[in-house]
Each structure stands twice: as structure tokens, then as C-alpha cells.
Design goal:
This protein is of the alpha+beta class. It contains 13 helices and ten strands. The protein folds into two domains: about 10-230 and about 420-435, no CATH class; about 230-325 and about 360-415, no CATH class. One of its GO terms (molecular function) is metal ion binding.
Length: about 450
């Protein structure tokens, strides 16, 4: 499969650098002509996949547009109607299906997230904060001196010195291989997925090649689900402490909940104790399967986070390849000091981007059926123990012989603070949007 790598945004297919610094900038279009000028300027600032060998190195800029943003730019209704219906509805309208209820419901989201004021999302990615600020400075002329464009929100994200997210686990471990991208996947046992699962206009795993119309707008684009997820770190630490028999047992429970030790070493390859050397090895730490070696989940519990998010070769989950997506997480907020068990009121968590071409059977399916239900592996209505919409009623079971180990009822550790469905246009689509005429 030959992909138009010089037309596809680099933010679609390239893993973020390690370490990293990321900034999300959100804009509202108040003047259509200025919005179109913004698209024209972005077409020259956004980095393509083919630019990966450029002097910019591991630094790039991406641009995404919401359905409300396409409307503000004057995209005809006949064209908008060819986009995914979940995208047209917006993430806030899909809250019930996504289990964004209670404290995660859109009424509690951080303004302006989830509103029709969110039109354009510009993301800058770099290896460190200094390089990131330089990238943001270079991108500033794109939107400055356009009075009809209003900056309404910004979120800065930086890799923690520990290389982990706030719960203490190494992040950025998994990345799928995409046919024709030239970018290797992190699991050497996984056959590369069809490009059409991640880039519009190419055959997907079912042989289809969906593309919003006109083709110049849809082809080489992707959908993205952006999420701001607040992590209740003190709550998580207290849960581990209260269910453990000591520090060593606490780490075992943490591994059984996640499916990996905090170093990144998977239980599948390090079942008895942590292996930091394995956890630091990107060529080994993600190369494993479940069905062949651990179908009953005695090593890696079927209900743990990583097995729910990607069941790999598990036949009980159906055709797993139809639900794969690219996941990117970036940490925001200062860490809660070690061993502190009470919340300090600070906002900390992850900005997540889920990228694919089928919002329904990728992001929404995984969120509703795998993360917030357990029927696919015979566990009823149980939820993901880390990121699920726990209600404080259901516990967590760790398979063990002769009797499984039952932990206390799970509180909700991750709260949605906002999100939106976006479209990542190709570079030629950005030029097309910039040239729209009333």
C-alpha cells in the first residue's frame, strides 16, 4: 500500500517523542474569511509524515477541526452530511454512550470544552519544553493578526521526570503498525493493520475505503477523539494501600490492575516480579499475546486495563483488529508528591488523542463495550479498573488458584474534564478549506 505521506499530517501516524512536551491550543472562528485564512496558513505550517527526516526532527504541528468549525468555515451541508454521524453530533452529545456521567458529565466539563465554540485545535509536539516553545513561537504568525480568530483554551503537557503518568506507570508503550507508513509497530507479533483503519480513502480491514466528500476534503484525513482526563491520584494510592498486605503486595495489585508493572514490563513476560530492564526495552515490552499463553487470565487478568483496551489475539473479543486505534497520551499538571495519600486539589491527568477512521467501531466501541462492560470476557457489567466509569459498587477480581482474589469496590479514578471529536484534514484539504468561496 502506497500512502500519500507528504499529504497526511504527521500527528496522525507518528508516535510522539520520548521524552516529550505538548501544547494544545483551541480557537473559535468568529469571521469566516479569517477562518479560511487560518486554514491557508496552517497548510504551510502543519508537518506531514514525509517530513519526519526534516531538520525539525521530533518536532511537529498538527491541526484539527470540529464539525462546528467546518460549519464556521462554510463547508456545504451536503459535504458535512458525508462525515461520520458521531463526529457531526460531537462528543458531549455522546456522553451517555461513552459513560461520561456523574462527575464526568458534560455539565461539569472545563469551559469551553464540549461546546460549539471549539472550532480548531492546533497541537505542537516537541522533545522538550524549550523546543516546544520555539515551535509555538514559529506557529504564532499562523493565527496572530487575525482578529476573527479567538484563542479560547490552552493545555500544556510535559513528560514527568519519572517517565510515567501520574498513577506511576510508564506510558507511551503501545503503537500499532500501519501498512505503508514505514513506521514500525511496538508489537512484533502483530500483523500491520490496513491503512484505511487510520487514514481515510484507503482500504480498511473490511475492504472498504470510506471518505467524506468531496474527495479532496476527506482523503488522507483522519478522525480524532480528544479527551482531557483528570486523575484522582490520592484515591488510587489509598485503594492500593487499603487492599494490600504490604508494599510488595501493593505493587502486585497495581500490576494486576494495569496488566503491567509500573516499569512498563508486562505481566505476560514478567509474571512473578517487576523487570525494569524489560520495561525500558521498546523492542520487547510489548511483544506478547494472550490467547496462546494465558487464555484464562491467571497471569494477565482479563479485566485489567491493557487487556481490555487491546485484547490482542483474544477470540472472545470478536475481531480485535476492527477496533484498533492509535492512542496518544500526554501528562499535564504537577505530580502529587510520593507517599501523599490526600488530594491537594491540583488538576493533573492526561490529555488523550484517539486516532482512527471509524469513531463508532473504534473509539466508541472500545469505550462502551470493552472499557465499561465485561460481557466480552464473561465478567458481566464490570468496568475497567483504572479508566472505567466505576460507581463504587463493583469490586475487582484477580484470577488465582484455588480461589480468585477479590478486591474492594472500585471508586472512579479517572474523571472526564472535557473532549471533542475532530477531523484531521490532509494538507491539501487545508488548502481546499482555505480556498472556499461563499
Amino acid at each position: 500500500m502506497n500512502l500519500d505521506l507528504d499529504d497526511i499530517q504527521r500527528g496522525v501516524l507518528s508516535p510522539r517523542p520520548t521524552p516529550y512536551a505538548v501544547t494544545y491550543l483551541v480557537f473559535r472562528i468568529d469571521d469566516r474569511a479569517h477562518g479560511r485564512e487560518l486554514m491557508r496558513r496552517l497548510s504551510g505550517a502543519v508537518t506531514s509524515v514525509a517530513d519526519s527526516a526534516s531538520p525539525l526532527g521530533e518536532t511537529w504541528v498538527s491541526a484539527a477541526v470540529t464539525c462546528a468549525g467546518l460549519e464556521a468555515l462554510g463547508v456545504p451541508r451536503s459535504s458535512l452530511d458525508t462525515f461520520a454521524w458521531e463526529f457531526r453530533q460531537g462528543m458531549a452529545a455522546r456522553a451517555t454512550a461513552l459513560s461520561d456521567v456523574g462527575q464526568s458529565s458534560p455539565e461539569h466539563w472545563e469551559a469551553p470544552l464540549g461546546t460549539r465554540d471549539v472550532h480548531v485545535v492546533i497541537t505542537a509536539v516537541a522533545p522538550d519544553a524549550l523546543v516546544l516553545e520555539a515551535a509555538v513561537d514559529r506557529a504564532r504568525p499562523v493565527y496572530e493578526r487575525l482578529p476573527g480568530i479567538t484563542a479560547i483554551w490552552r493545555q500544556d503537557c510535559y513528560a514527568l521526570p519519572t517517565g510515567t503518568e501520574h498513577f506511576g506507570y510508564r506510558d507511551g508503550v503501545s503503537h500499532p503498525a500501519v501498512e505503508g507508513s514505514g513506521i514500525p509497530g511496538s508489537n512484533q507479533l502483530e500483523v500491520p493493520l490496513k491503512a484505511g483503519e487510520f487514514v481515510l480513502g484507503y482500504p480498511d480491514e473490511l475492504g472498504g475505503a470510506e471518505t467524506p466528500q468531496p474527495t479532496v476534503l476527506g482523503r488522507n484525513g483522519s478522525y480524532a477523539a480528544f479527551r482531557k482526563l483528570h486523575q484522582q491520584v490520592a484515591e488510587f494510592r489509598r485503594y492500593l494501600r487499603d487492599n494490600a498486605n504490604g508494599p510488595q503486595d501493593e505493587e502486585l495489585i497495581a500490576a494486576k490492575i494495569m496488566g503491567r508493572w509500573r516499569s512498563g514490563a508486562p505481566l505476560a513476560l514478567a509474571p512473578q516480579c517487576d523487570d525494569p530492564e524489560l520495561g525500558a526495552d521498546p523492542h520487547r515490552r510489548n511483544t506478547f499475546l494472550y490467547e496462546r499463553d494465558d487464555p484464562a487470565g491467571f497471569t494477565t487478568p482479563g479485566g485489567c486495563h491493557i487487556r481490555r483496551a487491546n485484547p490482542r489475539d483474544a477470540s472472545v473479543a470478536g475481531e480485535v483488529r476492527l477496533h484498533r486505534m492509535i492512542r496518544r497520551g500526554a501528562v499535564y499538571g504537577a505530580p502529587l508528591p510520593e507517599r501523599v495519600m490526600e488530594d491537594d486539589g491540583a488538576d493533573r491527568g492526561l490529555m488523550f488523542a484517539f486516532i482512527g477512521t471509524h469513531l463508532g467501531r473504534q473509539f466508541e466501541f472500545v469505550q462502551s463495550e470493552w472499557m465499561n462492560h465485561g460481557v466480552f470476557f464473561g465478567a458481566g457489567n464490570t468496568r475497567d479498573p483504572v479508566a472505567g466509569a466505576a460507581d463504587g459498587e463493583a469490586g475487582y477480581a484477580i484470577p488465582h488458584r484455588p480461589l480468585r482474589r477479590r478486591l474492594a469496590a472500585l471508586p472512579r479514578f479517572v474523571v472526564t474534564r472535557g473532549g471533542e471529536y475532530c477531523f484531521l484534514p490532509s494538507l491539501s484539504a487545508l488548502r481546499w478549506l482555505g480556498g472556499l468561496q461563499d
